[in-house]
Amino acid sequence: MSEWLRQVPLLEGTHRRHLAHLVRILHRRSYESGEVVFRQGDVGSGMYIVHSGRIRIVAEDPVRGEIQLSILEPGQCFGEMSLFDHGPRSASALAHEDSVLYGLFEGDLDQLERTRPQAAARLLHNLALSVSLRLRHTNERLRDIEEGSARGPY
Amino acid sequence: MMALPVRKPLSARGDRLLLSFWIVLVASIAVFLLVSAWMLLAPLVLGYLLAILLSPVAEAMDRRRIPRTLGAFLVLGTLAAAIATLVVTASPAIFHQIQDFRDHSPEYLRSAEEKLSGLMILLGRLVPAQELDRARDLAVRRLTSHGSPFDSLHDLLDVLPLLENAVLTLVVAFFLLARGAEIRRAFMILVPNRYFEMMLRLLYRVQRQTADYLRGQCLDSIVNGILITVALAVLRVPYAPFLGTFAGLANAVPFLGPLVGGLPAIALALLGATATPWWLILLVLGSIHMLDNLVIYPATVGGSLQLPAWVVILGVALGNHLGGVLGMLVAVPAIGLARGFVLELHQNLRGFRIL
User: Fold this and answer.
1) How far is B14 from chain A (nearest CA, A)?
2) Is a pLDDT exceeding 70 seen at residue B9?
């Protein structure tokens, strides 16, 4: 398990000893194909790392229905924003096939900060990197959309 | 492509009704469990509260790479040793003060009779003289009875369940301090995926709320106890350490606590146990209470339990029925925490759209 965690980008640079501690903290959950992990609008309190299987991230739009945002592969994470703001989920997550996830929630992060502050600092640093990369990607997409609409439909 | 399962739309109506339903349901279950299995539940609840109170120390040890089991053992061992040392070193002083109070009690009674003579005449008109004499004899017997703290084997046997409970409490606290995270994780495995995140969030929030309140309240009681002890000692009121400790403990009960905590000192002044006038003691205790309300309590506990007065009175009565003085002290915080649990549960059920 520790070896697998070392390969997770979010935990890059985390000391082996701290990874062993994380193994004791993370929550292992199994989902059948089609099972909902969480829904858009639900109160969120943590994030998940895909261990096996694939997870589909879907936005529910009242006009356009379901919009598939991405399919996540093993090693990828989702739901990080709720770890910080504890706000409602911005999209839904479903198991695209039978999947195993590892969850890290606000209480676990709180405990990590108190017992392994260095590991928590590394994790938060990597999370900030991940969120900023996504923000940059979203900005680029927005700019593409803006440029597309400025050019007009012709 | 798999479609998301359809879920009922949220209804804003009936929110208050549902909340009331939850409060009544949880309160009924809690009261039923308390009444029917108090002796079984008490060590579990006290052990849980003790573990929460001491967890920062165990976590600090964990941070310094001291294994959790050893850390829990050291924390609880130190606590038990500190309590034992306190009991052993303080007991001669305690017995001396009890003896002193008993020696002086006839004077206090005479003084009380003199000061309350008007009231006794009035009572004599309302209550038959025989009943009044019997009540006075009983009070005299209680106050002036001499002997060891354990007058009979029966008294000694009464203490045994308390010791048994104390040991059980320590054992529960030990397991929760040493293996709390594993126990919680093992429990969470049993929770279905649908409710997993909600349950985890609920447990964490309630535990955090409990921990904040308990640590804050303990600190508040200690500061109050020390302030009152020092103030009473300066005012030359006898038995100041006992009265201060009692007032500090009573302070945990809102509304009634500060009043009940201050009464013995004022009563002693009225009975002539000290030259300090009763109104000066009242003034000083009132000032300490104001200081607590304005500065100490907001700094230590932060938010109030926000319980209505009638709930406090009912809680204290129920606590007294179940666990005597300890039950009275624990009842109000327990009700406040149960209320917090219900509110958090309701908020979570709404947040996860289960309701």
Assistant:
1) 20
2) no
Give the bridge partners for A104, in sequence order: A47
Which residues, 6+ apart, have CB-to-CB distance to A45 below 8 Å?
A: A82, A83, A86, A105, A106, A107, B197, B200, B201, B204
Residue B12 scores a pLDDT above 60 = no
**Whole-angstrom distance, CA of residue A37 vs CA of residue A47:** 11
Q: Kindly list the residues from chain A whose CB atom is less than 8 angstroms away from the CB atom of residue B354.
A: none
Q: Residues in chain B whose beta carbon is closer than 8 A to a beta carbon of chain A?
A: 1-5, 7, 56, 59, 62-63, 181-182, 185, 188-189, 193-194, 196-198, 200-201, 203-204, 207-208, 348, 351-353
This prediction has a pTM of: 0.74
Name which of A43, A96, A111 is nearest B348 (Cβ-Cβ).
A43
Closest residue by Cα to residue B194 from B30, B62, B79, B352: B352
Q: In this complex, which of B4, B59, B181 lies closest to A60 when CB atoms are compared?
A: B4
Tokens 């060590």 belong to residue: B43
Min distance B231 CA to chain A CA atoms (Å) = 38
**ipTM score of complex:** 0.85
Find tokens 């309240």 and name the residue.
B217
Q: How far is CA B119 from CA B130, B254, B264, in A?
A: 16, 30, 20
Q: What is the pLDDT of residues B99-139, one digit of tens each?
A: 777 777 777 777 776 766 666 676 666 667 777 677 767 76
User: Is residue B1 pLDDT above 70, yes or no?
Assistant: no
